[in-house]
Specification:
Blueprint: E1 2-7, H1 10-19, E2 25-28, E3 41-48, E4 51-63, E5 66-70, H2 77-86, E6 96-100, H3 102-105, H4 111-116, H5 118-130, H6 133-140, H7 148-151, H8 159-166, H9 173-181, H10 183-186, H11 189-197, H12 203-209, H13 215-223, H14 229-239
Parallel strand pairs: 1-3
Antiparallel strand pairs: 1-6, 2-5, 3-4, 4-5
Helix pairs in contact: 8-11, 11-12, 12-14, 13-14
């Protein structure tokens, strides 16, 4: 399994180095897959501009929306030095945390083709962050799920669009977990039930969202055979 964190701003990289890398760890903000075991060995890729480093890491803790890993910071020294020397920010955007689909990456274009697509990538990120509703919808149809997280940061994003995203089975579990982490969105019963019913939403996240669904939806979840067993059991307990 591979985890990736991409830094666009030098300040964000420096902040994580000071607060986390120096302690030999990092909190990767993605929903852990069900099969991930404590102390499992994973690959951690850190990307900063044109620099990247892949480290052997170990899972030391998991939460519904995060994986804590430990690693040897010595493997990052060259990247940190090069990124610091480069100075300028690649893009004014928050770091992107990903659970990498390695099978899909195996079919990725060559480095030369990727370099040619760099300008296009920056344009799509800008559209996700600042584009209109149609542009946001187009980004969410992009097979590159890395693009999807930027849509949630678009200030024009409305609750109706968040509801539509919550129902999508084509987006990643980490994106759904990020929606659930926003109290103003998750506390809406329509968004909460959409996330609970979405099979891509991490089970632990879905169980917590039961606090926000209506009594009628709770009863439906409790008796619907299609409901995931842990969610169904939690719904029954709440009814009782």
């Amino acid at each position: 399994m591979k985890l990736r964190v991409t830094y666009h701003r030098a300040a964000d990289l420096a902040a994580d180095d000071a607060s986390q890398f120096h302690k030999g760890g990092l909190l990767v903000r993605v929903a852990p897959p069900p099969e991930l075991a404590l102390f499992a060995e994973v690959a951690l890729e850190i990307v900063a501009g044109a620099e990247r480093a892949t480290l052997a890491a170990q899972v030391v803790q998991t939460a519904p929306d995060a994986i804590a890993v430990m690693f040897d910071r010595a493997g990052l020294v060259e990247l940190l030095t090069a990124a610091g020397a480069a100075g300028a920010d690649a893009l004014d955007a928050d770091p992107v945390h990903e659970l990498v689909d390695e099978a899909a990456e195996a079919e990725a274009p060559s480095p030369a083709a990727a370099a040619r697509g760099g300008a296009s990538l920056a344009r799509r990120i800008h559209q996700a962050l600042h584009g209109n509703k149609d542009e946001r919808a187009a980004i969410l149809r992009d097979v590159n799920k890395q693009m999807h997280v930027y849509v949630l940061k678009n200030p024009q994003l409305g609750a109706d669009e968040v509801l539509a995203i919550a129902k999508m089975a084509t987006v990643g579990a980490d994106l759904l977990a990020q929606i659930a982490a926003r109290r103003d969105w998750a506390s809406r019963p329509d968004i909460a039930i959409a996330l609970v019913r979405n099979p891509k939403t991490p089970t632990g996240v879905a169980v917590k969202l039961l606090d926000y669904v209506t009594a009628g939806d709770l009863r439906q979840l409790a008796k619907d055979a299609r409901t995931r067993t842990p969610i169904q059991q939690a719904a029954r307990k709440k009814i009782v």
